Structure formats: C-alpha cells, structure tokens
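Input record (one chain):
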Amino acid sequence: MSTRPPAVPTVQVKNERVIVTEWRFPPGGETGWHRHGYDYVVVPQSTGKLLLETREGNTEASLVAGQAYYRAEGVEHNVVNANDYEFVFVETEIL
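The corresponding structure, as predicted from the sequence alone:
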C-alpha cells in the first residue's frame, strides 16, 4: 500500500463522446495504478516533471503548461508528481 497522497480528479464534462477530468496532484501525489480504457489527450496546466511508473520500469516526463500530448488506449501506469509543488493537468478521454 502506498503512503503517497492521492491525486484528486474532478470530472468537468462527461457525455457519450468524451470525459474531461482535471487532475490535481499535491507534491508527491499519485493517481494509483490504472489502465486507460480509451484514447486520451492531456493538457498540462503546470510546468514540471511527472514520474511514470510502469511494469517495464520508471520514466520521468517533463511537461510544459499548455503543451498537449496524446496517448492510445491501453496505457497502464501510476503517475506521480515529482515536484515539490502542486501539479495540475486536464485529461480528455475520447469515447
């Protein structure tokens, strides 16, 4: 069991086409292990680093506020805020 604080998701839009969720990570916060069931786009609202824990090993991603990225369905990971400040992004899942 992790001792990291949880990231806080807030669903902003949910309909038959998309789910838009704001994710707020306290310093060291994590999503917990999960698998993405849909293609998705992330738009960082903060600039900083996220630790991506995967079954294949860990990587660090440097994100810049406003620079979106896309990932395909099936990604499995735990996302951890590697900063000493709150990190925020908006995720849009394409149904």
